[in-house]
Amino acid sequence: MARDSAASVARPLRVGVTGIGIMGSNHARVLAELPGAELVAVADPDTAQAGRVAEVLGCQAVSDHHGLLELGLDAVIVAAPTHLHHSVALDVINAGCSVLVEKPVASTVEQGREIVAAARAKGVTLMVGHVERFNPAVQAVKKAIEGEELLSIAITRVGPFPPRMSNVGVVIDLAVHDIDLIRWFTGSDIVEVQPQTSSAMAEREDIALLQFRTASGVLAHINTNWLTPFKARTVHVATRKKYVIGDLLTRQVTECFDYRPDGSYSMRHLPVAYAEPLRTELTHFLDAVRTGGTPPVSGEEGVASLEIAISCLTERVEAAARAKVRRAG
Ligand SMILES: NC(=O)c1ccc[n+]([C@@H]2O[C@H](COP(=O)([O-])OP(=O)(O)OC[C@H]3O[C@@H](n4cnc5c(N)ncnc54)[C@H](O)[C@@H]3O)[C@@H](O)[C@H]2O)c1
């Protein structure tokens, strides 16, 4: 459907969600109550699941995104498994609909770039669902470090194995969130990658310790795994003048500053807004669809984070190949 003309600006945007699993159900729930949006339908080949969600939310259920597109929508949320993002997003874009693609944007960088190019050619909005950026604690950290000279960032994202394993490991599934945060906090590209990954229990990597350097000189570290019995998500940022600690689950953000020669320092808890990150993300997406402005997480940014995540896996393989050649020599 064409972008709103000024005369029809107040019309609610007609939106659908494809892939009504864990994430898609959350998108649908939030959209159903978001002012300015009309949740027209949800799609899933598991029609019983789509039907259940549609009944609760009072919308239609169809079996796939082709069925959604027949309903004349302004935008579609793609929350199908990652390996389907590319084909589904291209169909949606080619139908002239704006699209929010869940993270990671695609399975490969080439696929991600094709999605970006298609959206640009069609003049539709493309946003990637890096929802952590809209976590109020993350936003409080970002505000606290604005204008400061950043030195290092350490992020921990650990927990137990997910109930249903997808076909990706922790780097693509979890670390990609934090790669996006590192790029966003620093406003800079990651130019050096030093990954260590291992598969302790699963076929894919389930532990990763990843180190980075950004073009602006910031050092960053991600500790992620599926082998911790409890969930933890923390961000620590060292700047020249302060140290900021954010707990992304309890949403407590603290900064230490005024370091004195006797070892004492000042500390304060920072105000953190109350908001559901997914609601904020979708509100920004719908605003961008309505205005034609750049969404807060562009397709290009989604591809850049995916590229770094994939390089963490390929760099390890290349390093192993180099070591083998050295041993053989
Ligand atoms: N932003 C986040 O924090 C976050 C969190 C979880 C998942 N995700 C992303 O969301 C996506 C889905 O993950 P999930 O955990 O909800 O998975 P899930 O397995 O719970 O749900 C996927 C759903 O897609 C459906 N599906 C399969 N083929 C389909 C098709 N052709 N068209 C439409 N639907 C189809 C499945 O039947 C299932 O209901 C993944 O890309 C994942 O990386 C993002």
Number of helices: 9
What is the helix content? 25-40%
Distinct small-molecule ligands in the complex: nicotinamide-adenine-dinucleotide
Q: Give the CATH level 1 class of the largest domain.
A: Alpha Beta
Please list the strands of the largest sheet in the order they lie side by side: 8-9-10-7-11-12-13-14
Outline: globular
Oligomerization state: single chain
Instruction: Name the CATH superfamily classification of the largest domain.
Output: Dihydrodipicolinate Reductase, domain 2
SS-based class:
alpha/beta
CATH topology grouping of the largest domain: Dihydrodipicolinate Reductase, domain 2
**What share of residues are in beta strands?**
25-35%
Order of helices and strands: EHEHEHEHEHEHEHEEEEEEEHH
Number of strands: 14
Kindly report the average pLDDT value.
Answer: 94
CATH architecture of the largest domain: 2-Layer Sandwich
User: Which residue ranges are poorly predicted, with pLDDT under 50 across at least 5 consecutive positions?
Assistant: none
Radius of gyration: 21 Å
Count of all domains: 2
Distance between the termini: 62 Å
